[in-house]
Amino acid sequence: MHLKKYIMAAMMGCCVLPLFALTPKNKTMKELDVKKVSMANIPVEAVPALLDEEKVAFQPISTVNWAAYPYCPDVKFRIAHTDNAILIHYKVKEASVRAVAGKDNGQVWEDACVEFFSIPAGDGVYYNMECNCAGRLLIGAGAGRSDRRHASQEILDKVQRWSSLGREDFEERVGECSWEVALVIPYSAFFMHNITSLDGKTIRANFYKCGDKLQTPHFLSWNPIDLEKPDFHCPEFFGALRFE
Asked: In the prediction, which pLDDT does 83 show?
């Protein structure tokens, strides 16, 4: 009986994080404070300048988790939030780029792609938000890899996107290329939940860079992943984001 009461109390106290996420397998879990900013009347292409003004620092996505894929392009991200959205700005320098997914919810991970995975609520459901270098976006949600639900186009259209390479698809371009992507992700993009604010909350998350079908495939992460083969669908290796 005492054990049952303890478990119930622990669950009630963990309104933001599911129980499995409170005991991550990675003992050196990274943590990051997420600054709150105002984005009144600012278009998505001005997000980089806004984050410059707010002195939001970049964080590297530089962990090479698998020896079979040693290539490590220069990748970094920074994140902030507003009353109703998450802002993310990625900067990438790599040996080749491509954007052939052709549509939202397509195979963007095969292109030059940056990704944000997160658990915004306390039920174990995590979201994968993946964006290629031309702003093609995939959003999925579920408790595991095998039960993903994709966001509708109506929801996807609410995510504002800017790419320094433009929004048109293109075949692979070999040669060093630098590119940037900025996203304004409204809380409504967490379509399986009713998220209205992240103020004062801590959520589990990870950031990735991949390019499964680039000339040099790679699989980088912000928080390290201790698995035998490349796999980003592993919430037990998410880091922590603390929102102001």
From this structure: 96
